[in-house]
Design a protein that fits this description.
The protein is of the alpha/beta class and about 400 residues long. Helix content is about 45%, strand content about 15%.
């Protein structure tokens, strides 16, 4: 191995470390890019190989097992998957994808890796042709239990469309700050139809504009919970699970910065960047505080807010396109655990709503157990709250992330 690893070598190392658990792929990519000071093009290639190997892992593994039935040493399996990703997903030049990947293989198995990848090249048309005939969990590299769950809840047409959407590389969206918009809009920023201030970004992130608070990188699906909450100028609002601040920034934008805003987060280290983000977004009366909302609402916050936004920790089942490794971390037991946690948080945070005030319960999950079922369980024991309306954003219909939001009203 070279002292200066190639991008393919770094991708292999990231995937090996990811397979051991405990670290997100996004974190591993960021660390590798920073450690080796990768230029933008190399970082983009590293991210593409790692993410697309995970995004298409079941299909690539199917190809691997077809090429060589039986077990393969785990380290070598991931190297072969890196090569197959370049050939079948990224469609890179065959000589580069095969040659560079084979050079990474230990000498003792180099012939095996070379034979598998060259055989894959010869059978490429065959593997492409069979793709549509494969079972949905293999075709779209999604755990079988989750596919079955979606089929029960959404039906075959929506499930297939959602799986297809999740197999695509996610776009990057941003919302302009109406109080501090950029002087010029670059041609590579594509305006979203019917959504003023929203753009799809192409090319490198506009770091200077982000640092200046002129725009905020976020998905259009985040607007639904803010729309339901409908913050009004001069109101006192709590964003209970706020970091990094995207939804708080949207509320500031909607009210021209005229909010008395308290933004809290369970992790203290997130508070400083949270406050900086909200001040850049135009907040004039912004406070941040650390609080764990599995614990009771502090006395000074009880019944103190006109509106509370509660965007709870969730399974991320609505954002599997963007959080590519989340599908492999999920389980039915984990969803049940999260639903219990979400209900606990909702039961504590509701105390912050003043009589006559409102609360929006929000997730980036599309799973009923984390969404309406949590709301119904809460309402069954909190008769002073009533259900007003809800919105479920399915990602393939929105052409954006999936999300859920429910508006609840507290009695006077």
């Amino acid at each position: 191995m070279s002292d200066t690893p190639s991008v393919r070598h770094l991708a292999w190392k990231c995937l090996l470390r990811w397979s051991q658990g405990g670290i997100f792929a996004e974190t591993l990519i960021a660390r590798a890019a920073a450690e080796h000071k990768l230029p933008h093009a190399d970082r983009s290639l590293l991210q593409a190989i790692v993410y697309d190997t995970l995004r298409h892992m079941s299909w690539l593994d199917h190809i691997r097992k077809t090429l060589r039935p039986g077990k393969l040493e785990e380290k070598i399996r991931w190297l072969v998957l890196v090569g197959l990703c370049q050939l079948f997903v990224l469609r890179q030049a065959e000589h580069a994808a095969v040659g560079e990947t084979v050079r990474l293989a230990p000498q003792r198995v180099r012939g095996v890796v070379n034979g598998m990848l060259r055989n894959a090249v010869r059978r490429k048309a065959e593997f492409d042709a069979e793709l549509e005939k494969l079972p949905l969990p293999v075709r779209f590299s999604t755990p079988s239990w989750l596919v079955k769950r979606w089929l029960r809840e959404f039906g075959e047409a929506d499930t297939r469309a959602m799986l297809e959407w999740n197999s695509l590389t996610p776009p990057v969206y941003a919302r302009l700050n109406p109080q501090n918009p950029p002087a010029e809009i670059p041609e590579c920023w594509e305006p979203l139809p019917l959504l003023p201030l929203w753009y799809r970004l192409h090319g490198p992130l506009p770091l200077e504009a982000l640092r200046a608070g002129q725009l905020y990188v976020t998905d259009p699906s985040t607007r639904y919970c803010v729309k339901l909450l409908a913050p009004q100028p001069g109101e006192r609002v709590l964003d209970a699970c706020a970091a990094p601040g995207g939804k708080s920034a949207a509320m500031l934008a909607a009210t021209g910065g005229d909010l008395h805003l308290l933004a809290t987060d369970v992790e203290e280290f997130r508070l400083k960047p949270l406050r900086e983000n909200l001040l850049r977004a135009g907040g004039r009366d912004v406070q941040v505080a650390q609080h764990d909302w599995t614990q009771p609402c502090p006395a000074e916050w009880c019944s103190a807010f006109d509106a509370v936004l509660l965007d709870v920790p969730c399974s991320n089942s609505g954002v599997l396109q963007r959080r590519v490794d989340a599908r492999w971390r999920l389980s039915a037991d984990e969803i049940a655990r999260l639903a219990a946690l979400q209900l606990q948080i909702l039961e504590q945070a509701c105390a912050a709503v003043r009589p006559g005030g409102r609360l929006v319960y929000s997730t980036c999950s599309i799973d009923r157990e984390e969404d309406r079922a949590v709301v119904d369980a809460f309402l069954a024991t909190h008769k002073d709250f009533t259900f007003v309306e809800e919105y479920l954003a399915l990602p393939h219909r929105e052409q954006a992330d999936g999300a859920y939001a429910a508006l609840l009203q507290r009695a006077e």
